[in-house]
């Protein structure tokens, strides 16, 4: 009752988006928060699927000027007479993840002050507004407008939307930190499974003799996403200071790797532990994102004719029709990797609750090194099923790394500023998003220049180098130790911060009748709203992957 009285007075004076407005009241069910996070992550996760627009946009104009063959990147940004190249459009993908990491780092502290609702609302405005600006860019055939709209403004929306639920879920589920963040962050991996087939359906519907249907698709998807993201933002609630799940008490620490204290945001990046975990995430992501980028050509060039029942026929010996056939089958491989990516985010994050975050990353690196080292042998043997399984497991650990790292940070630095600390750590993702594909593509081009023909040998060096990256990550993870006492805030400083930012009771701890209810009817409905689209995306992906083993 004391909490209700304190928060009630604050709510009466708070604006609709203010942090004080979303402090949970007695009777609130904590299982309503993960679907709110998923509603946002499933929308912004379409960033992974934006390549579905590249080919249609590269043929948007019926005719082009002969001078277009010598078009520079600067010329492509402003031309209205030439079709854009896929490489020019691909920069939007790079902008997505560079801006995601940068915006998460810059505005992570602001998010902790204002709360997840306001951050989620701003994310919806930036992501959906950026897509609408990109639609204007398509209509006027101005690539620079697409870069600014989808890439820059949309990228800021990605960063704010990605980190908006992290600290909230960690605080709602102190008993299952890994599972909680895994539930939300798996949505980012699943966004493309829903968005890409939806985009294909919409482009087919809107396509005419004079339009490829992309700008209309952008408008419709932006409106759909805005509704879902607003629903997620307004579904957020935060627990009052001192709240804990009913009947749960913080366990006596079995591991010195888990702290019940808190490090201030201003100090986290000064510790070696922050930069070691930064390196752990960067190296894990660099290896995985390189595979994502080359998954389709890798499968086609390694297995070639065996994908269509003609073993022994190399990639160079296939005609155009056969190459089109294996390209369609390789798309199924990419879809399967997406499923492993999503499943790994939930599985490994939940597993980390049982075996610990550091041990989970040890699994990532040791298994990854073994599987990358075995991949050339599996390719040479022509073992398609084992090759696909190996890379499926690798991609599950790529996704699991994203989902586990927020809980890793909460274990080491405490929960008070974990969202903002996580935001700063995501600069590792931005770095890996450039470094990983650059290294992988350079190695492949160097092999081709050296005369290596398409086939297993073309990727052997790549696999061994990726294994070396994971070995460096293994060393970095081994060096992560508990923080010395000097980095933690005093109990008085924590209480003052909680009272200031939450405007809530910083006194006795307890459940206060908040967070109860389990998986009741209201929670089931909220999960259905996000779960049904996700299941549809899974089904579409599975159908497209059947051809891989057909």
Task: Describe the 3D structure.
The longest helix is centred in the middle third of the chain and has 36 residues, at 320-355. The radius of gyration is 24 Å and the shape is globular. It has 20 helices and no strands. Helix 2 (33-44) packs antiparallel against helix 10 (214-235), helix 9 packs antiparallel against helix 13 and helix 12 packs parallel to helix 17 (427-449). The chain has helices at residues 2-13, 33-44, 54-58, 73-78, 86-114, 116-140, 143-163, 166-172, 177-206, 214-235, 265-268, 272-303, 320-355, 357-381, 384-413, 418-425, 427-449, 457-478, 491-502, 521-549. With 550 residues, the protein is mainly α. The protein folds into 2 domains: 29-63 and 80-246 and 523-550, Growth Hormone, Chain: A, CATH 1.20.1250.20; 253-488, Growth Hormone, Chain: A. Residues 37-485 form the Major facilitator superfamily (MFS) profile domain. This is OFA family MFS transporter. The chain crosses the membrane at residues 31-55, 90-107, 119-138, 144-163, 184-206, 212-236, 274-295, 326-348, 360-379, 385-409, 421-443, 463-480, 524-542.
Count of β-strands:
0
CATH superfamily of the largest domain: MFS general substrate transporter like domains
Form type: globular
Separation of the first and last Cα atoms = 62 Å
Q: Would you tell me which CATH topology of the largest domain applies?
A: Growth Hormone, Chain: A
Order of helices and strands: HHHHHHHHHHHHHHHHHHHH
**Tally of separate helices:** 20
Helix content: over 70%
Looking at the overall shape, the CATH architecture of the largest domain is Up-down Bundle
| Count of separate structural domains | 2
CATH class of the largest domain: Mainly Alpha
Question: Any idea what the radius of gyration is?
Answer: 24 Å
Mean pLDDT: 87
**Beta-strand content:** under 5%
Low-confidence stretches: 1-7, 502-507
Sheet of most strands: none
From the helix content, strand content and strand pairing, which structural class follows?
mainly alpha
